[in-house]
Design brief:
Layout: H1 5-26, H2 30-33, H3 52-56, E1 64-67, E2 73-75, H4 83-91, E3 95-98, E4 105-108, E5 113-116
Antiparallel strand pairs: 1-2, 1-3, 3-4, 4-5
Length: 117
């Protein structure tokens, strides 16, 4: 069934507004927007990949993250102890990068937003 032209216009406008709001939200994380490839703490700077805190408690990790404020390498939310998240909660260091080879993304705990680089 064909819609009245005004209904079609309203649908297009609503879609455009929703799309713009979602797009705008992804661009509002200043923590992520302030990081560039030039000022990232690179995984290449680490000779050994390990969660510093898991080593202390003799535990294992699933994936590793690098704090982009202080450079600590810690385990992800899929790991038992979630040291990267705990580090954020204790220090308010908002952004981590993936330490996994082949992955190039950042995550902001504060704004719950990600960004590829």
């Amino acid at each position: 069934m064909l819609k009245h032209p005004l209904e079609q216009s309203a649908t297009i406008i609503l879609f455009t507004v929703v799309f713009y709001q979602r797009y705008q939200k992804t661009m509002t994380c200043e923590h992520l927007n302030n990081l560039t490839v030039e000022n990232l703490i690179s995984k290449a700077a680490y000779p050994v990949f390990r969660c510093e805190e898991c080593i202390k408690v003799n535990s294992r990790w699933v994936h590793l993250r690098i704090c982009q404020t202080c450079g600590k390498m810690l385990c992800c939310d899929s790991s038992k102890h979630q040291h990267a998240r705990r580090h954020y909660e204790a220090t308010n260091h908002a952004v981590v990068s993936s330490a996994e080879l082949g992955e190039q993304w950042l995550w902001c705990f504060t704004d719950e937003q990600g960004k590829d680089y």
